[in-house]
Amino acid sequence: MVSIGTPEKLASLIEHLEIENGSQYLYVDPENILYDELDLNRGIQRTFFNVNTPFAFLDRFTRKDGVDDLKKVLCKWTKAFYIPPKNEQAFLQGGTFVIAGDKTVYAHYDPSTASHAPMDKVLSIARALVA
Hints:
Layout: E1 2-3, H1 7-16, E2 27-28, H2 33-38, H3 44-47, H4 52-62, H5 68-76, E3 95-100, E4 103-109, H6 119-130
Parallel strand pairs: 1-2
Antiparallel strand pairs: 3-4
């Protein structure tokens, strides 16, 4: 996983959230070189005022066990407040990519806040690659 931030903040976050072996698979992109190269969605319009945002929250809050993972993270999120290295990074959307060698076998650009790739699908694709 790659996120915005600095190596120091990443180490602090891994420790705070008690992510076992987090430094082995969590990375940061303080200059958002990867975000820029992938041309991920950005801006306040895309971040908060996109029609996908309320639908993503509606899906999460009305799905059976839809907030379980959110509860697990938020209960650990005490005394943690991380400001991105650059102000505009606060309005970057993420994405999910499965890469095998030099080929992208799955790409999902988050269209808005809370609108993420379906993890079951992502994991199924990744598991098929190592099977």
